[in-house]
Amino acid sequence: MNQWSIRRKRIILSIVVFVLVVLVGIPLFFLFYRAPACFDGRQNGDETGVDCGGSCQLLCRAESLPLVSKGDPRILEVGHSLYEVVAVVENPNISAEVRHARYTLKLFEEASVTPVRVIESETFVPKSGAFVVFEGPIDLGAWRPVRATLEWQADKFLWQKNTEAAKELVARDVLLTGENSKPRIDATIVNNSLDRVANIELSVLVSGEDGNLIAASKTFVEGLVGGSASPVVFSWPQPFKIKESICGFPVDVALVIDRSGSMDDLGVNPPQPLTDVKNTALYFINRLGRNDRYSLVSFANEASQPVDIPLGADAGMMQQAVNNISIATTSVQNTNIGAGILAARTELNSIRHRKEADKALVLLTDGVPTLPVQAGVGNYPETYALESARLARQDGISVYTIGLGKDVNINLLKMLATTTTETYFAPSTKELSGIYNQIATKICKKKPAVIDLYVRVFPDKSFLK
């Protein structure tokens, strides 16, 4: 067989094989071949796990970071037998979210290891940042929960990649009003992005200066077009429960007490009403905050010189000084209100005053001013008292006045005080504790409540609840 014949057979065989591959092999390949996919139940392609990682939308669980709870869940009593549970959680995964994150919430009574209520639920976990898990109101009947735990069912999480640009939503002009009556927070939510943002959840947490959660609420905004803003309101039917014994800002207080002769008109041994006045003054001192300092000035014909106790004395010294107040018996003891105010003003303006502290003067008297006198000037004792109070107020001192008994000039006391709401009238010593408590609460200025507002954007309306 010559070479040409052999070559021809080879060419024919090659053509036959090529035809078979084209007509049979290729169709069979496409018939049975399955390209790597993110839902084929196998690890293939660039996947780093079964149907996750690589170019797949799902993130492998090993590649995700666990959710971080920002403290324990907080329980709030919002009504009779009604409670809310609030937890702040952070997702450290910058570009991953969970559409349906299952969790278990357990509520416990004091010293109990058995939960009084177990709640199974789910929530949307947005990428990168903090969000609020909010459950309630929950009717627990006679149960009184004091603590709660939050457990994530992380083994069931389906982490999805989200590489979209973050929504530029900002809360501004956040204002709390009416915390002592019907609290209300007004704010403005601004969409700084170019596109419309829909299904916006806003959660607000209000804490006291001690870090304890006072109140929580949430609301929804259906949508905001790019560059627009919308007002939002959170409100509560009952005043916030804030510990009155904790003051946010320091205050230097001068306690000014009348020890004129009339302060024993109701009894001599012990002198009354002076004894009751001293007891309630001690109660008042104990009501002041730990950041406050106090001084004591007593007056009759003149104010005590030096003052009974200067600013900065400890509680023991203050108590002793109050107990030592007595009515002098060497001469008739009149009422020089102006002298008491001026002595307190001098002490509050002394080097012992702290620059960062507010100043307050609390005056108690059971009569009208009778000293000093000035020839040719009618009613000079009142004029002198009014001028003394004006100078005190001019120095930034808040002046509170208390009139005890039937012989006081309540209108004069209103003019001495910073405002008429800082004037109090006690028909007898029985009312003094309540009055001193009100003044202590006013003096004890609390720091502005800490307001944290969290924004979460849901994928669609079905996530709203």
TrEMBL record:
SMART domains: VWA
Transmembrane segments: 12-33
UniProt name for this protein: VWFA domain-containing protein
Superkingdom of the source species: Bacteria
UniProt keyword list: Membrane, Transmembrane, Transmembrane helix
InterPro entries: ECM_Assembly_Org (IPR050525), VWF_A (IPR002035), vWFA_dom_sf (IPR036465)
A Pfam family that the UniProt record links to this protein: VWA
Gene3D superfamilies documented for this protein: von Willebrand factor, type A domain
Domain VWFA: 252-439
